[in-house]
Specification:
Elements: E1 6-10, H1 13-19, E2 23-27, H2 28-34, H3 42-54, E3 58-61, E4 70-75, E5 84-93, E6 96-106, H4 110-118, E7 123-124, H5 131-134, H6 143-146, H7 162-177, H8 182-203, H9 209-233, H10 239-255
Parallel strand pairs: 2-6
Antiparallel strand pairs: 1-2, 3-4, 3-7, 4-5, 5-6
């Protein structure tokens, strides 16, 4: 067992860019004493941190940041224990990168980090784990795996998966219950679609694969909602925007290996 309480860690290129320095310091004794139930000793804390900062799967801004450069970093599968994931908190404190949090937990909890990314938090990705690994292995009931399933086409070209169809119907029913002007709702959906397309293009290089898949799914659902609105209420739609969205789905689905064909 190492009796070294303070340790300097080399950071991956992306963390170096975000934090402005290629190294970070950690108080191993403090981190171990904070979670003695998770680590055998300070040496294991050190190994876990080393893996996370060199090959992170997700880097996202800390929602409770204490500085402008404050991030939560996660690795889906640790080499020291293939059943565990690792996550750390790291911030630049007046020019010094400090690792203030370290955790080792069930790898299935990585889904929580993915969900935070999907919900819109700023996320950066370097090394993205496999699709199955992201969702905890062979769980066929997960949203990722249902993306590959097909269901009856509601509108030609881009059929919704079973999960997407359920979300689509839920949104449509919610719309019917809203006491709002139809023109307002149609404008709102169009704006959401436009923003989703723009966000996908801007974040494509930093979002992990799972988040990109979810974003494409949202775009597909919005297309169906807008087209449904047109059919039910004879409302005008932005055909150019719809075409742009469909082209994005066609191109990016193929790139992500989803097999969705026009």
């Amino acid at each position: 067992m190492s009796d070294k309480e303070l340790e300097i860690f080399a950071l991956c290129e992306r963390l170096t860019e975000l934090l402005g320095d290629k190294e970070a310091i950690a108080d191993l004794k403090k981190l171990y004493e904070h979670h003695p139930e998770m680590f055998k000793d300070m040496q294991e804390v050190s190994k876990a941190i080393g893996e996370v900062v060199l090959e992170p799967d997700l880097i996202m801004k800390n929602t409770k940041a204490k500085s402008e450069k404050d991030f939560i970093v996660a690795k889906q599968i640790l080499e020291i224990n293939s059943k565990k994931m690792g996550d750390i908190g790291i911030r630049n404190d007046e020019g010094t990168n400090i690792i203030y949090h370290a955790n080792k937990q069930d790898k299935r909890n990585f889904n929580r980090f993915i969900n935070k990314a999907v919900s819109g938090e700023a996320v950066h990705s370097l090394h993205t784990p496999s699709q199955d690994a992201q969702m905890g292995g062979d769980d066929k009931s997960s949203g990722v795996n249902t993306l590959s399933e097909t269901t009856k086409d509601i509108i030609p070209h881009y059929p919704l998966t079973q999960a997407e169809k359920q979300e689509y119907l839920a949104r449509v029913n919610a719309i019917k219950e809203q006491d709002k002007n139809l023109a307002f709702l149609n404008e709102s959906h169009t704006r959401d679609l436009k923003n989703s397309i723009q966000q996908y293009k801007e974040k494509e290089l930093v979002y992990p694969k799972q988040v990109l898949i979810k974003k494409l799914s949202d775009i597909k659902i919005l297309i169906h909602i807008i087209k449904n609105f047109k059919e039910e209420h004879k409302s005008k739609i932005d055909e150019k925007l719809i075409k742009q969205a469909e082209q994005l789905i066609q191109e990016k689905s193929k790139k992500l290996g989803l097999g969705i064909q026009r």
